[in-house]
Amino acid sequence: PAKRVGIIFRGIRSKNNLTQGEVAERLGIDQSDVSKIEKGKRSIGKALARKIEKEFGIDYRRFL
User: Fold this and answer.
1) Distances (CA, A) of 60 to 1, 17, 26, 46
2) Which of 1, 44, 55, 59 is deepest in the core (most CB within 10 A)?
3) pTM over 0.70
4) Which of 22, 27, 63 is nearest to 45 (CA)?
């Protein structure tokens, strides 16, 4: 599941032509956390999933 979430997350970033740093800034997390999420090494909690929903318009439940 973490790998699938990472692929979705990376797709959102690519679709919006953003760097990991830009996504991190918009979500209020470190760039290293963005990298870990994309690699499937860090899960996305409910709070961060809600931030992603607000920032990018993607249903937060896709990340849980």
Assistant:
1) 15, 20, 16, 8
2) 44
3) yes
4) 63
